[in-house]
Amino acid sequence: MNLHHLLTQREADGEPIRVGLIGAGRYGTMYLAQANNIPGIHVVAIADINVKRAEGAFELVGWPKDQIAPDIATALRDRSTAIVANADELFDVDIDIIVEATGNPIVGVKHALRAIDTKKHIIMVTVEADALAGPALAKRAEAAGVVYSMAYGDQPALIMELVDWARTSGFDVVCAGKGAKFLEHYHEMNPDNVWENWEFSKELTDSGQLNPNMHTSFRDGTKAAIEMAAVANAAGLVPSDTGLTFTPGDVEEIATICRPADVGGALAHEGTVDVMSSVNRDGTWIPHNTQEGVFVVVKATNAYVSGCFNEYPWHPDPTGQYAALYRPYHYVGLELNVSIANAVLRGIPTGSPTGFFGDVVATAKKDLKAGEFLDGEGGYTVWGQLVSAKHSVTTGALPVALAHHVELRNDVPKGGIVRWEDVIMDDSLAQALELRRETEALALEENLARS
User: Fold this and answer.
1) pTM beyond cutoff 0.85
2) Which residue has the higher pLDDT, 448 or 31?
3) Which domains does the chain have, with CATH numbers?
């Protein structure tokens, strides 16, 4: 509760937190919009292979021109900010923390490893990298004495805050989750028909400002699966092997829907993650839906607590045993500094993998033939399905993050999970594959520990 005080003290001492930001997309730009208003923060540099995009981000947020430095050395000396094309420049200079916001899981793993090797804290905005190999990265970071953290402002870190609230208050977590718009045909969506499933104007979709692959991932279930895998791995929750339910419902129904099926809910078991749909199956919007929000569902520990659930307007389930805590919005990059401050000033993450419990596996959008190339997240060939890590490892499933520009050696039917044996892996992925194998080994360790 005293982060701002600690930041103010750093400012007074002339020792601001030195931040290196990789990626000048939406998230990075949102953080820049706040950074100059936060005491104790010095954004030393922003790295983006598209320098013009980074320059445009500074213009968008009204960054003072006299605070833009020609290079990192000048930025460190003058407390200004440099723009560089090569992120490697950030790792060998006096920076405290790296924010990885490229959105590319392979590149994200590479940058996280460089940060860990050079003793810098890492905030992993690229949740795709966290879902692929976050458990191994967190383990390496711990050994190096640095923090590996989810990014506050994105939904997984906010969900973890609710999970921490629940457990600190003495509750067992029944379900942790979020809301999203979803219809059953979305799993077949591709970049050619994506705009038919969004509410954007034709003028905007024709403008080229929107990325059709990214927005396909947001709708076809992949992005939701990736985010909930990150939550599962941080909270030690086990997903269902049949994937997320995307059950329609409103805020008052969270505790009724996100409870086990044997008591009338939608879940395969307690201690899991799920996503609720903000629209009915006919496509009509649900009033007071959970679209932008996050939640945690807890279970009464005794009859007295159940009585409290029913005495207050907390919208418990019909049995009075389950109740939810809900946050309606996430402010994305505008909230990022909560993670930065916690990592540097307190040495703690705003959510970090504790093991390998959930995975996102490549699932065929259509009948796929040997010789075809997979095009990864938000493409034409596969979508990402959430399953338990145990199921993923024992069946040899291919993570969706590695299903990009790889050739099929076997046919895969529509709806089938692509397996390692079905693809010819690219040698350029060696580093990501090494971290992935370390992550999968953690799942085997978990199974041995429980047996």
Assistant:
1) yes
2) 31
3) 3-153+333-346 (3.40.50.720), 156-182+221-330 (no CATH), 358-450 (3.90.1210.10)
